[in-house]
Amino acid sequence: MTDNILKQKTGTDDAPRLTLPAQWYHDPDIYERERRQIFAKEWLLFGHESMAPDPGTYIARTIAGWPLLVIRGQDGALKGFHNVCRHRASMIVEDGIGKTAALRCMYHSWVYDMDGQLKMAPGFCEDDATLCSRTKLFSIHLEIWNGLIFVCLADDAPDFKAALGDLPAVTESVDFTAFHYHDMATHTIGCNWKTYVENYSEGYHIPYVHPGLNKEVDFKTYRVVTGDKIAQHLSQPREHRKDDAINDGLWVWHWPYAALNVYRNGMNLELMVPTGPEQTTLYYYYLFKDLADKEANDRTMAMSREVTDEDRKICEIVQKNLRAGVYTQGELSPRHEGGVAYFQDLVREKVK
Ligand code: FES
Ligand SMILES: [Fe+2]
Fold it and tell me: Could you tell me the CA-to-CA distances from 141 to 34, 40, 44, 58 in Å, in that order?
């Protein structure tokens, strides 16, 4: 995580560092490769423990076309499944955060227990005992680190600690278990998921795209440093905003699609979820230490909405030109776009 590493990864004046080809941002074949080589194989940040606190509470979300379900069982442990019924492939529950007494499929009412075992198939045949004994939901790997839930769809999951990379090191001052889920927001954006991750991975655009944010942070001090599987934003608030800046915190992106935005009074767990070759849905989960401090919490969420609307606009404009056909590749700034370069290196390695 040094400037030297940054320089190596972003090239030099003699050897400019080029972006990924524009085609990678709309080609259905590349998208399919990313679904299978990245999202079906890597550990993915999925949520925070406080989003499913009691037995029967669940989080269901479709990530890059994979409907997934994490539910807290009667034994208090979280379990992860593909959200697909073994009968005729309906999702068991719709995407969202909720609570249920039983995992009852929405199509023909098959009922699974919270370990994924089929318990009942109403009206299927005279005696469904043997059907139940041989039928189980597809499970996925699940790990919890510092209050954060991660899942992995691969049969042989890669080492979890290695997948965290430098996330524990750069967030060592933050106790994520102290935060409590408060509210969520989704934003559907007409761009490839990489367009959005890359936009997140640099502060180069802040003075030009985010006038409000630019009043808080001192752009001269802004840097993005990369480590193993992470990119961290470093900045100082402007002198006169030292006491009241909302964004005086920690922003970290974690491979492949998650970000932890920690503010003074809370955090936003941000997932940049691919929902098509040219569509991304942002999931924002707002977590606070003090849920009663409504005024401060509302101010934080309002700031986040303002910045997101600005990012949405610029990412959709960029996406239009990535698809149009004139632009094929550009050069990345050695000073500002080390995070973009690192992300593109990881994508290239997986998709090749
Ligand atoms: S698809 Fe689930 S019960 Fe038929
Ligand atoms: Fe931005």
Answer: 19, 11, 10, 16
